[in-house]
Write a structure and sequence with these properties.
Blueprint: H1 2-7, E1 12-18, H2 24-30, E2 34-38, E3 42-48, E4 62-72, E5 77-83, E6 95-97, H3 104-116, E7 120-131, E8 141-151, E9 163-170, H4 171-176, H5 182-197, E10 204-210, E11 217-223, H6 227-230
Parallel strand pairs: 4-8
Antiparallel strand pairs: 1-3, 2-3, 4-5, 4-6, 5-9, 7-8, 10-11
């Protein structure tokens, strides 16, 4: 097959091997195939047949974590937790890893509910942290996004397997305390600014557009535009 593909002028081969047929990996490796990525029930190998170094794209290099800052605008309190099994018991916003195919806002809402029992609605993005060579992510890069959420329930029933403490804390207190993680403290100050001066000054909102790929859509996150700039004009 490899000889035929070369003769046909193909420049690359993708080989998907189910886990129960893993014995074929050795034969593929002897033909020059290398691992590209693996999933729970299969692995994918590649062979570059073109000239020079392989120009095939690498597999995913980042993991995405999302937290939700659920702020009750009536009381000025925000939902915070302290994780179990951490070296430092610091206050933080509840959150976790995004599932494949899950929107950022949906991850925030789901994680907040799973950890605290609080229902909420996604309102905006507040911050993005980027960290390379993350020790807890097998050395790949990590993106950590904090969203602003609007809670719709208030009785806490937190997950005792993940959380040691959970409470509604005054936002101003969270912005001042030294018992919060650095990123939580920074975002609490940003949230306090928006709470006092207007969330339009801090919110990164979302709009959905049809993608160039038929039947698919994408989410675009950006600062809200003034109405005068939302109108498409021809020059």
């Amino acid at each position: 097959s490899v000889k035929q593909w070369r003769a046909e002028g193909r420049i690359a081969v993708w080989l998907h091997i189910p886990i129960l047929q893993s014995k074929f990996i050795t034969a593929a490796a002897l033909q020059g195939f290398t691992f590209h990525h693996a999933e729970s029930n299969s692995s994918t190998l590649t062979l570059w047949l073109g000239e020079g170094h392989s120009r095939l794209p690498g597999y995913a290099t980042h993991q995405l974590g999302v937290a939700g800052a659920a702020l009750d605008v009536d009381s000025g309190k925000v939902l915070v937790v302290q994780d179990k099994n951490k070296t430092m018991n610091a206050w933080k916003f509840p959150g976790g890893l995004s599932d494949p195919g899950e929107d950022i806002g949906d991850t925030a809402v789901r994680e907040v509910f799973e950890e605290t029992g609080i229902k909420s609605e996604f309102k905006s993005l507040l911050s993005i942290r980027q960290q390379h060579r993350h020790p807890g992510a097998f050395g790949i890069s990590d993106m950590y996004i904090i969203c602003r959420l609007q809670p719709s329930s208030f009785n806490i029933s937190f997950c005792q397997q993940e959380c040691m403490r959970c409470e509604w804390m005054d936002l101003e207190e969270l912005a001042k305390t030294r018992e919060a993680t650095p990123i939580t403290s920074s975002v609490a100050k940003l949230l306090l600014y928006g709470y006092r001066e207007g969330f339009d000054k801090i919110d990164i909102t979302m709009r959905e557009f049809p993608a160039v790929y038929k039947g698919l859509f994408y989410k675009l996150y950006h600062r809200e535009l003034p109405d005068t700039y939302k109108i498409t004009t021809e020059l």
